Amino acid sequence: MTSIHAQSEASLWRDLAPLMEPKSVAVIGASQRAPAAGVVREPRGNRVIRNLRNFNYPGRIVAVNPKYSEVMDCPCYPDLASIPEPPDCVVLAVPNRHVPDLLESAAAAGVRAGVVFSAGFAEIGVEGKQRQARLEALSKEHDFLICGPNCYGVLNVFRRAPLFASLIPQGFLAGPVALVSQSGGLSTTIANALMLNRHVGLSHIVSCGNQAGVTVEEYLNYFVEDENTGVVAAFVEGFKQPTKLMAVARKAMAHNKPLIILKGGRSDVSQRAAATHSGSLAGTAEVIDAAFRQGGIVHVRSLNELIDTVSLFSCDTFVKRYNGGRRIGVLSGSGGECTLVSDAAMNVGLEVPELSEDSKARLPEVLPDFGNLNNPLDGTGAMYDDDKIFPRLLQALIDDANIDIVTVNLEANDPRPKELKSGTRFSRAIANAAAPANKPIAIFSSIVGGPVDPDILLPLRTAGVPLMEGAECAMSALRHLADYHQFRKSWQASRQKEAVAVLSHPKLPAGILPAEAAFRLLDSFGIPVVPTLLACNAEDAATTSERIGFPVALKVESAQITHKSDVGGVALNLASPSEVRATFTQIKNQVTTQNPSAEIAGIVVQRMAPEGIEMILGIKRDPLFGPVIVCGFGGILVEILKDVAIGIPPVSREQAHSLLTGLRGWPLLTGIRGKPPADVDALCDAIVKVSNLALSLGEQLLALDINPLVVHENNHGVAAVDALVQIG
Amino acid sequence: MTSIHAQSEASLWRDLAPLMEPKSVAVIGASQRAPAAGVVREPRGNRVIRNLRNFNYPGRIVAVNPKYSEVMDCPCYPDLASIPEPPDCVVLAVPNRHVPDLLESAAAAGVRAGVVFSAGFAEIGVEGKQRQARLEALSKEHDFLICGPNCYGVLNVFRRAPLFASLIPQGFLAGPVALVSQSGGLSTTIANALMLNRHVGLSHIVSCGNQAGVTVEEYLNYFVEDENTGVVAAFVEGFKQPTKLMAVARKAMAHNKPLIILKGGRSDVSQRAAATHSGSLAGTAEVIDAAFRQGGIVHVRSLNELIDTVSLFSCDTFVKRYNGGRRIGVLSGSGGECTLVSDAAMNVGLEVPELSEDSKARLPEVLPDFGNLNNPLDGTGAMYDDDKIFPRLLQALIDDANIDIVTVNLEANDPRPKELKSGTRFSRAIANAAAPANKPIAIFSSIVGGPVDPDILLPLRTAGVPLMEGAECAMSALRHLADYHQFRKSWQASRQKEAVAVLSHPKLPAGILPAEAAFRLLDSFGIPVVPTLLACNAEDAATTSERIGFPVALKVESAQITHKSDVGGVALNLASPSEVRATFTQIKNQVTTQNPSAEIAGIVVQRMAPEGIEMILGIKRDPLFGPVIVCGFGGILVEILKDVAIGIPPVSREQAHSLLTGLRGWPLLTGIRGKPPADVDALCDAIVKVSNLALSLGEQLLALDINPLVVHENNHGVAAVDALVQIG
What we know:
The two termini of chain A are about 20 Å apart. In chain A, helix 5 (about 185-200) packs across helix 10 (about 305-315). A seven-stranded mixed beta sheet of chain A has the order 3-4-2-1-5-6-7, sandwiched between helices. A seven-stranded mixed beta sheet of chain A has the order 9-8-11-10-12-13-14, with helices on both faces. In chain A, strands 20, 25, 26, 27, 28, 29 and 30 form a seven-stranded antiparallel beta sheet that branches. In chain A, a hairpin with a 4-residue loop joins strand 8 and strand 9. Chain A is built from 25 helices and 30 strands. Chain A is flat, with a radius of gyration of 31 Å. The first copy, chain A, has about 725 residues and is an alpha/beta fold. The interface between A and B is large, with 103 and 103 residues.
């Protein structure tokens, strides 16, 4: 037996410097042909050189093109081998059919990385898949770093290295956010929205397309280690390396660099779309959800939620002032918005508490005629008419001890002409109040959309006040921040206990394990089972029954029979040796009559378990993540409502507990309808031990299904009553 | 007994013309004082006059102010009585304390309507509530129409009558959408977003505030009857007249004028906020949901969903070309967006079918090098580089027989400088294709937010192609359209059967009805019950048992005992007369010992019902809607998951059926785990009869709780086993 999980995390990662921080670049596919009238049609190779110039790239740029000796003032060579010193990275702006040969010759010439823009690889038919296979082999066998194919490439802002297919004008906003998106189009859409609609700066943009070489997980790791990056954002269609994903989540948590990820491909249709587009396996939605939850990854559900969550998390002043609480104060000039934002806050589990008694006493002193003393605080038309009112209301929320986060409803995106708007006045007041405040302040508009006024946006962002659009997105983003804060706190507390030492298990015979062997396996991992033994004849059964205690159940054991009760192979509640003896014979006869060909290995004798809450606990194989723990309530909750919790091994006791509290049926375990609370501790323990079993058995375990696992009342433990173990 | 529901619907409604189409207006609160530097601070009265001028109001405008003989070139009178001919409507831009007196004098002077801007009524303390009570009395007793208080007033675009507190510049976009919002601020926010971000024109804007006089329901009715209005949008915090709401929903359906409503105030906090702000009762969220569903009201969940749903429904060409199907085709230049929009479509239940075989065969003919033949159709970078590709792909979707609605992902809100954008090119191609198309086409952006490019928006809207922002909102809006279409179709089909004739029921004694009386009541409405009779002595019980058939249950009957089994007052499964006799005596003794003070009216004999699915069916009183039907499954589904369907009486058989299919536990009725399907017909019938009971008993019925109603297998009916009826 060898200890698993001993692999050093450092050995997981490659050095991405030749791709992300190249000291020299060769561009293949740039030409002297003058750019066409529409800028969009300039060849991609030329666009890359233009981008490098716009960013003042400090490294060496060469072009490769047999037709010219120079392109856009760069030296141009007929082929890669002719370049005097091999560049770190080659950018391929050429049709897909040329790509594999070119990359292979680049690797041979000593180049260490390549960016491939063109589509037509794993996302299309057989030919494309073969092309992609050559890239994957090159990446693996020669440790050659490939970004793409089917992508826009990489842009390292602080290293001034934009190996990027889409034209990026000067005046790019640098900042702490690193972005990776498989999709090229969305990478720029997200980046532009962050920079121009939120004034959020970027450290990197990576569009990684089909991930034939470097994977999303590797970029995430690079960002987490990057000194210029504080927040990592991603749009992902399919992960390729789930182990690395979980590892980078742990590392991000240790560095306090939040990973904020939008994962597409939840539906069958979108999985079809993702497979077409990027050739990735999208992974089961529920398992991805579970992995994100377990890793403390901020899981956003739409592009706008991504943008506003990033807007919030990347606002340093805001985050530093945040105390982890979930009580928000709201100031608005619209009573209607007070109602809507309250709904939105409740929806995501934030609190909108009443104002403190202190505020209620002090507000009338500074605003004698102002009637409203509520949270949300409705400034009414009065705050538009009288310049004194707004700052005093805002200060009251900042000073209120009941409030953790102050939010102000401000239409920074009013589409009307400037002279009709009043937002600038309020934004000045907010910026003034924010400077000396010790509490985080954010603004949100009622509606999402419309031109964001830079005169409002920039001064506020500079003052540490992030903008979000729409109450729903704003409340979701704040909830993510609160969740992240809470996760990190409990992660820090539980860090010492984290070490999981699991020994690998010897190989088991393939197929469905016989009941006795299955129960022995569970027992060997410390999972409580009802006593279960195989008897070969009636006398043996009677003796065994006496040993394990009455009442007992008898269940026929035969590899050919799956539905035992359908063939009369099960008898319950047998109370005496004579009853057991008679029933043994009866079962054997009945089964033989109905299934003459079935080989009967014997009959299992099992002590009847006392009643309790029937749950299911098991292990399933996810196509991406491999073995995952599945837990839920038996009966209609799982059958009709699919109320199932999923954990990615290793699962700790704390994680097991939070899996259970996440079940809709959770109140059943806490004791409802006058019933005593169930033994949740023992249940958590069983989940942890099933997780250990999953890790120990590794790939040989195809499925485990304990159904039911009976959970008794508190201090009375749990017991597996039926178990199916499938070995591959 | 008198027939209810005979009231003519016409008699429900008042004529709002003096308020909505006034021939003359008096403004109180305009002044000669020059407007201050900031336009926002101009007195509201002056703003109203300015608005009337901007709109070329054709009626007479006078001002009322004892200080001047004219204001802004209008004749000015010292008081209302001095105006030679009383105006139709008076606009009050004065502090709240003057409002009641002024309105009462206006009514006395023959004025028929008033608009009250000021706050400080029911939304604040005692004094405000008294002020509002005077307005409500005036409205009721003198049929005086009041808009507000605490509002921005009314704006009738086609009558050029803006009695509106917020300044509305010239160039207002007239169109088919009427908007009512209690909130003033949100009324203009919504209207501006519709006009400027969606190019959707408006017929009216009403901000009705506290609804002291005219209610939201009355404005909705006015809009439904208005010839210039085709679509009605509303943001409502609290309804006041649920009967009128249901009536206007029916009328809107008959006129095919969709009601699209955002209802705030779902949470406790927001109900607190709404009560503060507009003094309305927000109503139970679940009952509102049920009422909207039953009335075919389009129920949107956010301001952006409101805006995009209105954008879609108000696009005449789109709606006319729509066939009612749910199969969407998507064209995008971003594979990532193809994934996201597929997720969004699946989330709301739209289909994204594969392309037809015909398309798959024909596309390669027009685009030989184009590999992707999927839906969503990923145009890839190719469609940016080659002008021929996009129109051909679009045409393929328009021609595809598998697709009902064509959507195009187009960034009309790209925040970058003009020279970097390529949207205009695609928008031209869409406009060209839309003209001859026989299929509805819509566009949506990936991200919500940023400046909407008028060069893209206007030509497309004119070509009948509506814009929506974000895949989520776009898919929700399309789903609403499909649902509305389907609702209206089945509403048209079932229209003939709609007549409900219910007789009012004689008064019952107050309190909890004795069991026998409760069962008799159910029986008299045709609701199946298990035979249940009261016996006064043991012999009587035995005889009764023989008559109704064994086995039977005995249950003590006493007004003082609620939990019968707790005091030994229940016995089940008695199989013979002798057992019944003995048990009768035993129960009586036991109950008397435990509850010496309880008066025992007798013991109820009830035939044991055969087993079946246990449901609950009853009537609860909602604070706003009054009696509502409640139906769900017994056990954990109702206790833990609150899985309950709500219907507003009268409930038809079709509606009863859709209540049941909406339950999460619905599969239990269709037969799962090898069980036969349940008698859903009989269950629907019972729901309709409970609805009749609710209408007949009217206000005297406080609550009805049939628990359990046992539902037997198909063709075996249902039976009420326990019933609690509370009369007030």
